[in-house]
């Protein structure tokens, strides 16, 4: 179940789907769905988007925490962009549905290199009030 909304900024005309089940980001395009499908989970209510501190891992630029790739090099997230890198969650089952299990304390994620890394936050995901992720950056919508 979702709600359709239109972005009025640089993404004008793109429809954003608000997912009504699970997750901690109340208005997002894909984050809730990603947490439930791509990273460790056991039920719709068990896996949740991780606390903000988990996303700080995206500032290191390593294999498991970055915002985007340029010419095969991982680019670390700037502080304002950390929610536009790898998607972290808490709870759920022990192993991800796809890819390699990543765990830092209670922060969980998946890493999948065979194709575009599906463990990354999807484009057009809400990353702040009136902001969405695009190419690893949190931009005004």
Automatic annotation (TrEMBL):
<keyword id="KW-1015">Disulfide bond</keyword>
<dbReference type="Pfam" id="PF08516">
    <property type="entry name" value="ADAM_CR"/>
</dbReference>
<dbReference type="GO" id="GO:0090729">
    <property type="term" value="F:toxin activity"/>
</dbReference>
<keyword id="KW-0800">Toxin</keyword>
<dbReference type="GO" id="GO:0005886">
    <property type="term" value="C:plasma membrane"/>
</dbReference>
<feature type="domain" description="ADAM cysteine-rich">
    <location>
        <begin position="45"/>
        <end position="141"/>
    </location>
</feature>
<dbReference type="InterPro" id="IPR006586">
    <property type="entry name" value="ADAM_Cys-rich"/>
</dbReference>
<keyword id="KW-0964">Secreted</keyword>
<protein>
    <submittedName>
        <fullName>Zinc metalloproteinase-disintegrin-like ohanin</fullName>
    </submittedName>
</protein>
<dbReference type="GO" id="GO:0005576">
    <property type="term" value="C:extracellular region"/>
</dbReference>
């Amino acid at each position: 179940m979702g709600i359709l909304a239109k972005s009025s900024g640089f993404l004008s005309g793109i429809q954003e789907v608000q997912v009504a089940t699970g997750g901690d980001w109340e208005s997002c395009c894909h984050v809730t769905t990603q947490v439930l499908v791509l990273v460790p989970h056991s039920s719709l209510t068990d896996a949740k988007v991780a606390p903000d501190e988990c996303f700080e891992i995206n500032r290191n630029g390593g294999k498991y925490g970055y915002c985007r790739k340029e010419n095969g090099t991982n680019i670390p997230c700037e502080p304002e962009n950390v929610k536009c890198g790898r998607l972290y969650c808490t709870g759920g089952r022990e192993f991800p549905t796809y890819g390699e299990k990543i765990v830092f304390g209670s922060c969980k994620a998946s890493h999948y290199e065979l194709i575009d890394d599906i463990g990354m936050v999807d484009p057009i995901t809400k990353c702040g009030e009136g902001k969405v992720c695009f190419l690893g950056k949190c931009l005004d919508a």
